[in-house]
Structures are given as structure tokens and as C-alpha cells.
Sequence to fold (435 residues):
Amino acid sequence: MSTTIKSAEGKLGILLPGLGAVATTLIAGVYAVNKGISKPIGSTTQMGTIRVGKRTENNTPLIKDFIPLADIKNVVFGGWDLFEDNVYQSAVNAGVLDRYTLELLKPELEAIKPMKAVFDKKYVTKLDGSNVKKAATKMELADQLRQDIRDFKTKNNCDRLVMVWTGSTEIYIQESEVHQTIEKLEEGLRNNDDNIPSSMIYAYAAIKEGIPYANGAPNLSADIPALVSLAKQNNVPICGKDFKTGQTLMKTIVAPGLKTRSLGIAGWFSTNILGNRDGAVLDDPASFKTKEVSKLSVLEDILEPEKHPDLYKDLYHKVRIDYYPPRGDNKEGWDNIDIFGWMGYPMQIKIDFLCRDSILAAPLVLDLAIFLDLAQRSNMSGIQEWLSFFFKSPQTKKGVHPIHDIFKQEMKLQNTLRHLQGVELITFLGLDYED
Fold:
């Protein structure tokens, strides 16, 4: 029996805190697709397929033809940034996309100007800008954001809104007393509690306004009991955190394969060089700590060393990120993996992923916005674990270990879509001629 899904007709507004390289690459890409200049490569909602029924039925529609999703021709963008540059100027500065393509999209991109950001240099020490809101308390800043959200919806005639954090990685903050209940969080907002970073103010504003929220950075944002509870109370879907793009994407592909074949791993050394704004931010040890925790958790959760001590209990896992301006957005992720096999004989795997950070992240932002909108139209609220597919450090309920294996994540995502449409889930448990 299918779930009642409200209509996807009308205009969907995608709000982006942080109109830097990732956000501008996303916006330019959607306009390029809508103009027939490009294809939405890398987007699960636009190019992914889903099997329906038995293999012998050969029924594999596009996901967007299987379930009612918002049409990207009916999407509008808005956002906040601490720099005043419009989206065209910001995209030029980011240096991700070629100037020829940007010129073709210039009128549309120039029309999107950033709203003043909620920003505090305390949480992102390597950045500074003038396009910033001012207020006596963090609660007043949240109220200003809520007004921005309402004004954007009215001005752009939006039927629905979603928010995806595309801003920078903030310094490492651990969950504390102020994060436990909505009453304590709101008191903290009124009292300018240092444990409430800018991203958490955006998350609070979105959820209070009934807008789905995804956290694309490893910040402690909506991943606290107070906001999880508020999301359930306001019937808002949330998810996070930290877009799974380059090196961690490789880990969630390779590590499950090694584990499946019962091959041991002695060490996994990962280093990255990155020259964009994200690289500059991560040059600060406090911001890197937030990213490091996100990246390190992946292998332990996939390999489960406590259950496979002979294979992984002594695994040494090291992650480095170095800011290297000449590389710009073209990140290089290098992995050295020391593995061992039968009778303990050692072997090595080397991976050198010369990737483009924002090119990999942009379609994830689109997919999260489209799927969160589907979740809300399907009356789903709270943490959307089925969207773990898109994250390095998936948000889960308290006490539940996240699933990092990308193939299990895909299965969960697709079976959620099948469930919503009331078709049989695929478990691969049937006989060959039945499944």
C-alpha cells in the first residue's frame, strides 16, 4: 500500500547558507541543464534508475519517473553569504566552471544576490566578510533569518522551501547541556551561548519555519537532541552531515569490498591537498578537527573491528588535509592502504583521486533538496536515515550506529522509495527466477 504523497506541482525554493563554490556550481548547473547546455550527471534524482519488480520483468524506470519529485525547471534559489558578490561573481571567483559557460548563464546568475549572513569569525577563523547581520542576541539573528525565509517565499511565489547548508566547516564543538532541549537551546540563543554556532542558528530558523534542513558540513548543526525533537514536533525532515564527495566516497566503496572478502587491513593513510575556500578554512586546526572526526569514523563503522579483531583491531587510520592554493577546487585525495591476505602476507592498494570538489558536491545538494521535499510531502519527519547515501557522517537516532557502506545505503534509499510507492521491496532473498 502506497503512502499518500502530496503533489510536487508548484515552485520549490532551495535556500543555501553559503553561496561559495559548491552552491554556485549547483545553481549554474541547474540553469545549464534547464537550458539544454548540460546533463545532470552525478544526480541520483535526475539520472538514477530504480528496479521495480522481478529481474525478469526488466522494469527499471528513472527515479524521477517512478515517484513524484519536484521538477528542476520549477526550482528557484536563494541564500546568504558573508561576501556581497552575486552568484555570477562568486562563481567566477570560485574558479570551478569555465568562463564561457558562465557567460551563457550570466543574467540568471547575476540576479541572485546573497542575503546578509549570520556569521561569527569565532567559529570560522579563516574567513571574514562585511555582508553580515547585526543583532544583540543570537535569538534576534534567528528571527532575522526567519523573516528572510518568509520574505523569500513571498517574493518568489514559492509553494515549498528546503534549506541545505553549503557553508564552511566550523570549529569543533561537542554536544553540551544547552543542546539537550529546545527550552535550553532557546535560552542559549537569548544568552549568546558560545556552544551555539552560526550553522545551528540557521538550522533552528529553518525548523521553526517548518522547512526541511540538510547539513552539508561536519558542524554540530541540527545534530542535537533539541533540534531533532523540534523537527519531530514541527513535522520537519532533517538529515546530515558532511557531503560524501572525494576521498571518503572512495573509502565507502573500497572498504566494504575488502571486508566482504575477509581481507585484513593494517593501515590506511589518507592525505588531501585542496586550494579553495574550504581548504583555507580547514587550515585552521579547530575547523580541521571537525572534519577529521567526520572522516575518521567511516572505516571503524564499516569494518567493525570489535567483531573482526583478527582483521582490523590494529588498523592504523590517519587523515591529513593540507591547504595548497595552486590546486584551487581541484582536490587531490591520495590513499595508501596496507592490506594482508592468506597466511598474513602483506599487499598494498594505492588510490590517487584527482577530483573536483564542487563538481562532486553540487549534485548531492540538488538530490538532498529534492528528496527532502519528497519526505515532507510524504509526511516524514525527524532524521531521514535513508538519505545517509549522501553523507560522510550520517545522522542517526541516538545509540544507533550509522551505515557507511555505500551499497547498503543505496539499498535503503531505494527501498524507502519503493515503500513510499507501495511496491515490493527488493531484498535479494528470493530464488533466482523470483527476485
